[in-house]
């Protein structure tokens, strides 16, 4: 009777061993990420309530002046502008990416993969160089405005660079791929017979699109919106290259506080504010998808 | 029979959070046997096999191999090998290296490895494919590699987890014959998991039918097919015309009304609630012999399927029996019954199964 | 009964089929609007790249008028000691970050898939943080951490933060690959006498080689091109190439940048194409999975 009892104990030891090897695999990466990333993010939070000494060096403490400074209309204006630009960027990305993803997914044939690669590969190539090239294209005597002037869609006074439109154009060019990938994935999965069934039920292609195709790819679009919104809110290169002093975004403010202004607590407070906005966006997205999933289950 | 069984499961259970995958299973598998674990999916047959292989730890009971308790030993310390359902071949190794894997772990010397791998390739008829990669082989060939990879280690017991499930029907029939031949040739104990009752019946020396984590019945293929001891086994093994009723004086009075003669049953008192069944092939439609019970019914459906024809005969409203006839040389197509006809049919009482 | 019904069913199917065929004919007509947007999109996508490449071969400084073909700006780049040393710095950073993040990330991916303990779920969450945090936040945070620890910003601090950021990418890509592995293969190895560690080493790791290689190349390219993290965590000298380009673009246009930009674009496009292609070398289809993992 003692035998099974003994072997049960040994067995438990072995099972623990089996898990332990994977724990050891996981440990270095987890410790690294916690040590560098989580610790550093916490540090930003701590410094947001810190102060500076007379030389401008950051000091730990509990001082709400940086947080209070955020209520300055100058800052809230930048925040609102960043939000506006980012939301506009999201909308334009969706409008541009949808037909592109749709064409490739449903009419790409055997060139599907090649076309997606042709979009994805340059997007992962150097961001700065691409933005720089884009700024040349959008410049006052660049090819785009020249062409628009030639066909009479623009006059000699029309400018893109150094306007809000330029900044949004930069953001769209920078991040539209994050919209195309999830939309393409969703459209790829879409059962073509669903569209055909839609034709049976609703008739016209436009009605089919709005009642069948669009709802079926809503999740992909939602994921794309988040993936574009996150980097767009944090971007500072577009506003720098395509915009002027009147178009600065929250990223430029943060950059300024850490490099030129040397006010780290204020920079940290701005960073925390940015994170807060993004967190609200993320939570909204998660609630939306959870609701969608719940509806799908029903 | 050998005194010590090759495999013994002694009161083995596997309990997950709140349910049992396997519950109190006791099995003895004699050396050299082709033994099948048969049952529907989720009946615990694969879990039982995995416990013999050492991939799953039982929560209770002991696993014995050749009389030795191996419950606490990991898979690499057990003298059994497994042919996995997915074959689980190593894609980055050639066929020969796949087969040599186990021998290399044991530290067998090179020349010996080469010799035994060659032998195995010949046994499974893959001698020309030694240097190819598994991915380039067909399903049947990959199955043979998996078999060779396990057999080359000369295990005491070979475990096979639905190895033929992924093959198409024709190839499956062919592999059934081949597997059986190979087993006879190498003389190793095979424990074979399947949900296909035909497969289990044709290949095995003994079959254990499992259901909901328990062994329902264990015996020779004839035993479990002809003399099922439970309703589950009777219904799982082929079509069985299972009906519920009450036993009364040599007949079963069905819940729907009619009484079916089944012969006097020893030790069964009148009024016992029973299930009865007659196999479709045990029911005759003509040439009745003395001692047979003959009844009448209406043909409701005739299903022709090549070598056999199945009739659905309605005995009373709601009571339908399935009857199987061989389309032998003597039977002419014109003589087949058609729907709506009233026919006589009969059976021998001893072919009726009555379970209380 | 069934036999009787067959003809009607057949007729109905035929009618349905011809209806579908007619409909499909209409569905197959390419939507003209979507197609023209796609064409325009591709044109605008490649126009900036084409401009950079074209003007890198210009004889003059102008970014609007192409005067003639010359390698002048490439020569200028290769004679610019500062830029060349930056290139070396960038390559060193990419190499170290690649090795570090692939080692840590691959181990993490294996652990996350196989180990379903509480530590596993915590690690899974921690790993996602960089993916949902804009780079500027990670950059600011890393800089503060290094300064807080009293470290001088240097090439080493760039390496550390690039590793931190890249681990997530490696883990996300490899995690789905590990999860797709057949667990029976590892069991088969143990069944054939391998210990658990041997099974991982002899069977699991070789199966991951193509993905790990592709992933390494991708990380190398991403780190080499990364600018935001490098910008926040680099010291004054030496600086990574992308930070130099940033300063150059900001403070007046130098045509050398076109040449450097062209070289960088060519390099990273080549590397990313290679990353997509590697799985095919090992006879696996669908290298694009690598990117959709994000």
Automatic annotation (TrEMBL), chain A:
<keyword id="KW-0812">Transmembrane</keyword>
<comment type="similarity">
    <text>Belongs to the binding-protein-dependent transport system permease family. CysTW subfamily.</text>
</comment>
<dbReference type="Pfam" id="PF00528">
    <property type="entry name" value="BPD_transp_1"/>
</dbReference>
<keyword id="KW-0472">Membrane</keyword>
<dbReference type="InterPro" id="IPR000515">
    <property type="entry name" value="MetI-like"/>
</dbReference>
<feature type="domain" description="ABC transmembrane type-1">
    <location>
        <begin position="79"/>
        <end position="287"/>
    </location>
</feature>
<feature type="transmembrane region" description="Helical">
    <location>
        <begin position="165"/>
        <end position="187"/>
    </location>
</feature>
<feature type="transmembrane region" description="Helical">
    <location>
        <begin position="83"/>
        <end position="102"/>
    </location>
</feature>
<protein>
    <submittedName>
        <fullName>ABC transporter permease</fullName>
    </submittedName>
</protein>
<keyword id="KW-1003">Cell membrane</keyword>
<feature type="transmembrane region" description="Helical">
    <location>
        <begin position="21"/>
        <end position="49"/>
    </location>
</feature>
<dbReference type="InterPro" id="IPR035906">
    <property type="entry name" value="MetI-like_sf"/>
</dbReference>
<feature type="transmembrane region" description="Helical">
    <location>
        <begin position="266"/>
        <end position="286"/>
    </location>
</feature>
<keyword id="KW-0813">Transport</keyword>
<keyword id="KW-1133">Transmembrane helix</keyword>
From TrEMBL, chain B:
<protein>
    <recommendedName>
        <fullName>Spermidine/putrescine import ATP-binding protein PotA</fullName>
        <ecNumber>7.6.2.11</ecNumber>
    </recommendedName>
</protein>
<keyword id="KW-1003">Cell membrane</keyword>
<dbReference type="InterPro" id="IPR050093">
    <property type="entry name" value="ABC_SmlMolc_Importer"/>
</dbReference>
<keyword id="KW-1278">Translocase</keyword>
<feature type="domain" description="ABC transporter">
    <location>
        <begin position="7"/>
        <end position="237"/>
    </location>
</feature>
<dbReference type="InterPro" id="IPR027417">
    <property type="entry name" value="P-loop_NTPase"/>
</dbReference>
<dbReference type="InterPro" id="IPR013611">
    <property type="entry name" value="Transp-assoc_OB_typ2"/>
</dbReference>
<dbReference type="InterPro" id="IPR003593">
    <property type="entry name" value="AAA+_ATPase"/>
</dbReference>
<dbReference type="InterPro" id="IPR017879">
    <property type="entry name" value="PotA_ATP-bd"/>
</dbReference>
<keyword id="KW-0067">ATP-binding</keyword>
<keyword id="KW-0547">Nucleotide-binding</keyword>
<dbReference type="Pfam" id="PF00005">
    <property type="entry name" value="ABC_tran"/>
</dbReference>
<dbReference type="InterPro" id="IPR017871">
    <property type="entry name" value="ABC_transporter-like_CS"/>
</dbReference>
<dbReference type="Pfam" id="PF08402">
    <property type="entry name" value="TOBE_2"/>
</dbReference>
<keyword id="KW-0472">Membrane</keyword>
UniProtKB/TrEMBL annotation, chain C:
<protein>
    <submittedName>
        <fullName>ABC transporter permease</fullName>
    </submittedName>
</protein>
<feature type="transmembrane region" description="Helical">
    <location>
        <begin position="202"/>
        <end position="224"/>
    </location>
</feature>
<feature type="transmembrane region" description="Helical">
    <location>
        <begin position="257"/>
        <end position="278"/>
    </location>
</feature>
<feature type="domain" description="ABC transmembrane type-1">
    <location>
        <begin position="87"/>
        <end position="275"/>
    </location>
</feature>
<keyword id="KW-0812">Transmembrane</keyword>
<keyword id="KW-1133">Transmembrane helix</keyword>
<dbReference type="Pfam" id="PF00528">
    <property type="entry name" value="BPD_transp_1"/>
</dbReference>
<comment type="similarity">
    <text>Belongs to the binding-protein-dependent transport system permease family. CysTW subfamily.</text>
</comment>
<keyword id="KW-1003">Cell membrane</keyword>
<dbReference type="InterPro" id="IPR035906">
    <property type="entry name" value="MetI-like_sf"/>
</dbReference>
<feature type="transmembrane region" description="Helical">
    <location>
        <begin position="152"/>
        <end position="174"/>
    </location>
</feature>
<keyword id="KW-0813">Transport</keyword>
<feature type="transmembrane region" description="Helical">
    <location>
        <begin position="33"/>
        <end position="57"/>
    </location>
</feature>
<feature type="compositionally biased region" description="Basic residues">
    <location>
        <begin position="18"/>
        <end position="27"/>
    </location>
</feature>
<feature type="transmembrane region" description="Helical">
    <location>
        <begin position="93"/>
        <end position="113"/>
    </location>
</feature>
């Amino acid at each position: 009777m003692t035998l099974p009892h003994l072997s049960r104990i040994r067995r438990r030891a072995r099972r623990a061993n089996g898990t332990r090897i994977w724990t050891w695999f996981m440990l270095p990466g987890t410790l690294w990420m916690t040590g560098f990333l989580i610790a550093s993010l916490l540090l930003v939070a701590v410094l947001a309530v810190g102060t500076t000494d007379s030389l401008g060096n950051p000091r730990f403490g509990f001082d709400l002046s940086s947080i209070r400074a955020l209520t300055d209309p100058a800052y809230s204006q930048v925040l609102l502008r960043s939000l506006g630009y980012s939301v506009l960027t999201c909308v334009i990305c969706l409008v541009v990416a949808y037909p592109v993803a749709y064409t490739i997914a449903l009419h790409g044939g055997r060139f599907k993969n090649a076309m997606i690669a042709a979009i994805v590969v340059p997007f992962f190539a150097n961001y700065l160089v691409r933005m720089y090239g884009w700024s040349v294209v959008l410049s006052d005597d660049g090819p785009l405005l020249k062409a628009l002037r030639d066909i009479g869609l623009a006059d000699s006074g029309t400018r893109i660079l150094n306007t809000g439109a330029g900044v949004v154009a930069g953001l769209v060019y920078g991040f539209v791929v994050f919209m195309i990938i999830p939309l393409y994935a969703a459209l790829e999965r879409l059962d073509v017979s669903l569209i055909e069934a839609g034709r049976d039920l609703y008739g016209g292609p436009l009605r089919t699109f709005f009642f069948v195709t669009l709802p079926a790819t809503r999740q992909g679009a939602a994921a794309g919106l988040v993936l574009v919104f996150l980097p767009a809110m944090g971007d500072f290169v577009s506003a720098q290259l395509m915009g002027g002093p009147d178009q600065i975004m929250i990223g430029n403010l943060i950059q300024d506080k850490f490099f030129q202004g040397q006010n780290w607590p204020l920079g940290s407070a701005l960073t925390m504010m940015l994170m807060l906005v993004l967190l609200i966006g993320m939570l909204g997205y998660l609630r939306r998808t959870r609701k969608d999933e719940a509806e799908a289950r029903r | 029979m050998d005194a010590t069984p090759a495999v013994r499961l002694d009161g083995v259970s596997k309990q997950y959070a709140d349910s049992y995958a396997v519950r109190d299973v006791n099995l003895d598998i004699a050396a050299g046997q082709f033994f099948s674990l048969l049952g529907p999916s989720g009946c615990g047959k694969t879990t039982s096999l995995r416990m013999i292989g050492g991939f799953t730890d039982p929560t209770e009971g002991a696993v014995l191999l050749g009389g030795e308790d191996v419950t606490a030993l990991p898979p690499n310390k057990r003298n059994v090998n497994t042919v996995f359902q997915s074959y689980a071949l190593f894609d980055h190794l050639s066929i020969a290296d796949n087969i040599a894997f186990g021998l290399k772990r044991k530290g067998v010397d090179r020349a010996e490895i080469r010799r035994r791998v060659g032998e195995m390739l010949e046994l499974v008829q893959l001698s020309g494919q030694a240097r190819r990669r598994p991915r380039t082989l067909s399903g049947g060939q990959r199955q043979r590699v998996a078999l060779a990879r396990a057999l080359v280690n000369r295990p005491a017991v070979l475990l096979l987890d639905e190895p033929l499930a992924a093959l198409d029907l024709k190839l499956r029939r062919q592999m059934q014959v081949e597997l059986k031949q190979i087993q006879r040739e190498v003389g190793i104990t095979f424990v074979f998991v399947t949900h296909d009752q035909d497969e289990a019946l044709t290949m095995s020396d003994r079959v254990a039918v499992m259901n909901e984590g328990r062994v329902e019945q264990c015996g020779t293929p004839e035993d479990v097919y002809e003399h099922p001891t439970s309703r589950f086994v009777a219904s799982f093994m082929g079509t069985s015309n299972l009906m519920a009723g009450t036993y009364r004086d040599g007949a079963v009075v069905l819940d729907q009304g009619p009484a079916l003669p089944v012969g006097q049953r020893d030790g069964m008192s009148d009024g016992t609630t029973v299930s009865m069944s007659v196999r479709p092939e045990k029911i005759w439609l003509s040439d009745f012999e003395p001692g047979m019970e003959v009844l009448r019914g209406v043909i409701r459906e005739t299903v022709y399927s090549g070598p056999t024809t199945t009739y659905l005969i309605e005995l009373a409203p709601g009571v339908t029996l399935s009857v199987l006839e061989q389309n032998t040389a003597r039977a002419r197509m014109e003589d087949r019954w058609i729907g709506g006809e009233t026919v006589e049919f009969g059976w021998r009482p001893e072919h009726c199964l009555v379970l209380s | 009964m069934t036999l009787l019904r067959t003809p009607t069913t057949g007729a109905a199917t035929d009618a349905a089929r011809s209806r579908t065929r007619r409909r499909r004919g209409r569905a197959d007509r390419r939507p003209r609007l979507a197609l023209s947007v796609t064409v325009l999109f591709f044109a605008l996508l490649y126009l900036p790249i084409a401009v950079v490449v074209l003007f890198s071969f210009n004889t003059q400084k102008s970014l609007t008028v192409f005067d003639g073909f010359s390698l002048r700006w490439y020569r200028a780049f290769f004679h610019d000691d500062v830029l060349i040393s930056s290139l070396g710095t960038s390559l060193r950073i990419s190499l170290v970050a690649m090795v570090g993040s692939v080692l840590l990330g691959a181990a993490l991916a294996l652990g996350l898939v196989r180990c379903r303990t509480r530590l596993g779920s915590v690690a899974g969450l921690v790993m996602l943080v960089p993916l949902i945090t804009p780079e500027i936040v990670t950059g600011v945070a890393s800089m503060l951490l290094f300064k807080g620890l009293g470290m001088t910003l240097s090439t080493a601090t760039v390496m550390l933060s690039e590793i931190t950021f890249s681990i997530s990418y490696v883990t996300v890509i490899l995690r789905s690959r590990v999860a797709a592995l057949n667990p029976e293969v590892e069991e088969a190895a143990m069944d054939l006498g391998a210990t658990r560690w041997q099974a991982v080493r002899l069977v699991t790791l070789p199966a991951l080689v193509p993905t790990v290689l592709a992933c390494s190349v991708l990380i190398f390219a991403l780190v080499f091109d990364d600018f935001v993290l490098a910008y926040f965590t680099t010291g004054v000298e030496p600086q990574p190439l992308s930070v130099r380009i940033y300063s150059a673009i900001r403070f007046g246009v130098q045509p050398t940048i076109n040449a450097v930009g062209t070289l960088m674009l060519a390099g990273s496009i080549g590397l990313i194409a290679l990353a997509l292609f590697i799985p095919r070398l090992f006879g696996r289809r669908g290298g694009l999975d690598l990117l959709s993992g994000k």
